[in-house]
Amino acid sequence: MMIDALPVREKILIARLRERAARQLNSRRLRAQVKTGGAVICGIGDDAAVLRIPPGHQALVTTDFSLEDVHFRLAWDSAEAIGHRTLLRGLSDIAAMGGEPTAAFLSLALPAQVRDDWVERFLAGLLNLARRFGVSLAGGDTSQSPQKILADIIVVGSVPSNRAILRSGAQVGDRIYVTGRLGASAARLAELYSAGARTRPPSGAQDRLGMPRIALGRALRRLSLATSMIDLSDGLSTDLDHLCQESRVGAQIWEEAIPRAAWDGDRVEMKFALHGGEDYELLFTARRKRRMPKTIDGIRITEIGTITRGRKAFLVNSSGRQVAFGPAGWEHFAPHSGS
């Protein structure tokens, strides 16, 4: 981040970010990272950050947009939750590779009417999550937006050389697994739509702050359990299609095996578990004969299907009938088409 020849408000914002990042680097966990060779050498204040990659490792780099009225609405989401999910999107990608996150870079475009206290709370949500996973805010950019808020996050991590878990490793006969439970985020969004919420979420539709499965992804890589993996950000049907296309295989999914999240005292509708996005769980495959633990890092692991020949996915529904299971992931802030 450069701090010369900038508007006054941008200088103040960058100074605030730099102060927060410096405070973060003084935390015990990040000081330990410096000693072990996985942290930021030089961060905010220069033209570029300087990062140290541990010996015998390869770098992981991912980037994600968060756009107002596409990924979030100010009337429906707190500033803290928006900041949290901005970083969560990148951390979840690192988890899906079996990697360890190291540093984050935030580019933030704000319209003039956004209040300073909203920015403070946004940063608090983002940095609280960063601190929890030992990630340094190492740089980025700021700008004025003509109308809406745009946040772009880049997350850098590392993985032992040639050990990253890719989407392309699934083979015919592999079992398919998911972590946690699915559909809560989509159920929340559907409730907001049905209530016609304009200024505040209805009862029960409060912030839902997911967590990246960093330790779980790392364990799957360390134990050589997963043959391929992807995070569930776009919905099970869509992300399964991505994995199948990259591995050049098909899949059969058992509807009754899908672990559905609880919502409003009951399990979510099946369509939300099958197609809802922003679960940030992991979808992965493993060899048929590999024994899979019931939980890893305290997170439930559920077998939901098998990898097949061909390039198409099918769903075996509750009546035992096999139907096509194409990508129909959640489209944010557009009427959901159902299952």
Explain the layout of strands and helices.
Elements: H1 8-25, H2 28-36, E1 40-42, E2 50-51, E3 57-67, H3 79-96, E4 100-110, H4 116-132, E5 136-144, E6 150-160, E7 175-179, H5 184-195, H6 214-222, E8 228-231, H7 236-247, E9 250-254, E10 262-263, E11 266-267, H8 270-275, E12 282-286, E13 295-296, E14 299-308, E15 313-316, E16 322-324
Helix pairs in contact: 3-4, 3-6
What does this structure look like?
This protein has helices spanning 8-25, 28-36, 79-96, 116-132, 184-195, 214-222, 236-247, 270-275; strands spanning 40-42, 50-51, 57-67, 100-110, 136-144, 150-160, 175-179, 228-231, 250-254, 262-263, 266-267, 282-286, 295-296, 299-308, 313-316, 322-324. β15 (313-316) and β16 (322-324) form a beta hairpin. With 339 residues, the protein is of the alpha+beta class. The protein contains eight helices and 16 strands. It is globular and about 60 Å long. 30% of the residues lie in helices and 26% in strands. Strands 7, 8, 9, 12, 13, 14, 15 and 16 form an eight-stranded mixed β-sheet that branches. Strands 3-6-4-5 form a four-stranded mixed β-sheet. The chain has two domains: 8-160, PurM-like, N-terminal domain (60s Ribosomal Protein L30, Chain: A), CATH 3.30.1330; 167-324, PurM-like C-terminal domain (Phosphoribosyl-aminoimidazole Synthetase, Chain A, domain 2, Alpha-Beta Complex), CATH 3.90.650.10. The N and C termini lie far apart (45 Å). Mean pLDDT is 85; it is low at 1-8, 28-38 and 331-339.
